[in-house]
From TrEMBL:
<dbReference type="InterPro" id="IPR010713">
    <property type="entry name" value="XET_C"/>
</dbReference>
<comment type="function">
    <text>Catalyzes xyloglucan endohydrolysis (XEH) and/or endotransglycosylation (XET). Cleaves and religates xyloglucan polymers, an essential constituent of the primary cell wall, and thereby participates in cell wall construction of growing tissues.</text>
</comment>
<feature type="signal peptide">
    <location>
        <begin position="1"/>
        <end position="20"/>
    </location>
</feature>
<dbReference type="GO" id="GO:0004553">
    <property type="term" value="F:hydrolase activity, hydrolyzing O-glycosyl compounds"/>
</dbReference>
<dbReference type="GO" id="GO:0071555">
    <property type="term" value="P:cell wall organization"/>
</dbReference>
<dbReference type="InterPro" id="IPR000757">
    <property type="entry name" value="Beta-glucanase-like"/>
</dbReference>
<dbReference type="InterPro" id="IPR013320">
    <property type="entry name" value="ConA-like_dom_sf"/>
</dbReference>
<dbReference type="GO" id="GO:0042546">
    <property type="term" value="P:cell wall biogenesis"/>
</dbReference>
<dbReference type="InterPro" id="IPR016455">
    <property type="entry name" value="XTH"/>
</dbReference>
<keyword id="KW-1015">Disulfide bond</keyword>
<dbReference type="Pfam" id="PF00722">
    <property type="entry name" value="Glyco_hydro_16"/>
</dbReference>
<dbReference type="GO" id="GO:0010411">
    <property type="term" value="P:xyloglucan metabolic process"/>
</dbReference>
<dbReference type="GO" id="GO:0016762">
    <property type="term" value="F:xyloglucan:xyloglucosyl transferase activity"/>
</dbReference>
<keyword id="KW-0378">Hydrolase</keyword>
<feature type="domain" description="GH16">
    <location>
        <begin position="1"/>
        <end position="218"/>
    </location>
</feature>
<keyword id="KW-0961">Cell wall biogenesis/degradation</keyword>
<dbReference type="GO" id="GO:0048046">
    <property type="term" value="C:apoplast"/>
</dbReference>
Length: 289
């Protein structure tokens, strides 16, 4: 009996457990990432396994992957700026090259707040368009206190945003009914920037620069993704089931994760573009299913 349970646990762990939990967090930043902007506002810590981004009144900073990817199960461990961080945005996102209106992008944006007020997590999905698919959640923890894992699963079947392995958003491939779905190679990005024109209370709560410099910390620079050449239109090979995140157990949420997801939506979601009738008198197609 106990050996049966043991075998079962091993299977669970080797199936999606390892993948979902992320892997080797000892990987050096330089192996897969580089600083993209705000060079002197990025500091390497712990032998390069951790990066601190700083923002003061002269600059924020951003990092990005060296490679482009066509599918994967991505993650970063993040600790956001503490104390009064109103107006400060810590972002972790996947993005296709260029800034045309036909753009693919998957966003986590942690919206800073006054010290006594909670952070809000915003997500967005751009699929060959301008996005406008914001959702906002209260978090069930204070992201200033510790590192948490923010994950994006991207395969042909769906895109799932997770926080600490809990699904918080699912964007299904509904191209069969005419909803666009990301098709372009994307890079991984993270940044710390001044969003005080919109981020906190719709832009009414401003950055208090006497709290600067703001500091965000990042770990987990291992990447589980299918590499593609920059600007390549050939990402077909990224659908191959030689990549674990493309195998059937990743095509939809299992019953446990489905329940977690329902629970998050019920208890923590505070804004959903799908139900914003002012903005979308007719719900967007993907919201009708
Ligand atoms: C930026 O911050 C520095 C240090 O706090 C201060 O000396 C400087 O005046 C500030 N500059 C602006 C443009 O606010
Ligand atoms: C918050 O403020 C306190 C007091 O000014 C300071 O000691 C501490 O380092 C700050 N924490 C962070 C995360 O900035
Ligand atoms: C890829 O496309 C972007 C935007 O069109 C361009 O800025 C970049 O230089 C291109 N990269 C390569 C390697 O061609
Ligand atoms: C979306 O799903 C369809 C099948 O319904 C598939 O043919 C297509 O390749 C998928 N799109 C992407 C970008 O993976
Ligand atoms: C900004 O921070 C300083 C120092 O903590 C504080 O004295 C001041 O009241 C704050 N301003 C606002 C608008 O909260």
């Amino acid at each position: 009996m106990s050996s049966l349970i043991f075998v079962f646990l091993i299977v669970l762990f080797t199936d999606d457990g390892v993948l979902v939990r992320g892997g080797n967090s000892e990987i050096n930043f330089d192996q897969n990432y580089k600083v993209i902007w705000g060079d002197n506002h990025a500091v390497s810590l712990n032998q390069g396994t951790e990066i601190q981004l700083l923002m003061d009144n002269s600059s924020g900073a951003g990092i990005g992957s060296k490679m482009d990817y066509g599918s994967g199960f991505f993650h970063l461990r993040i600790k956001v700026p503490g104390n009064d961080s109103a107006g400060v945005v810590t972002a972790y996102y996947m993005s296709s090259q260029g800034s045309s209106s036909r753009h693919d992008e998957l966003d986590f944006e942690l919206l800073g707040n006054r010290e006594e007020k909670p952070y809000i997590l915003q997500t967005n999905v751009f699929a060959d368009d301008g996005g406008n698919r914001e959702q906002k959640l209260k978090l069930w923890f204070d992201p200033r206190q510790d590192f948490h894992d923010y994950q994006i699963l991207w395969n042909q079947h769906h895109i799932v945003f997770f926080v600490d392995n809990i699904p918080i958003r699912v964007f299904k491939n509904m191209s069969n009914i005419g909803v666009s779905y990301p098709t372009k190679p994307m890079q991984i990005h993270a940044s710390l920037w001044d969003g005080d024109s919109w981020a906190t209370d719709g832009g009414r709560t401003k950055i208090n620069w006497s709290s600067a410099p703001f500091k965000a910390y990042f770990q987990g620079f291992d990447v589980k993704g299918c590499e593609v050449l920059q600007n390549s239109s050939d990402i077909q090979h990224c659908d191959s089931d030689k990549y674990q995140w493309n195998t059937p157990s990743f095509w939809q949420l299992d019953p446990v994760r489905q329940r977690q997801y329902e629970d998050v939506k019920t208890r923590y979601m505070i804004y959903d573009y799908c139900t914003d009738r002012k903005r979308n008198p007719t719900p967007p197609l993907e919201c009708q299913h």
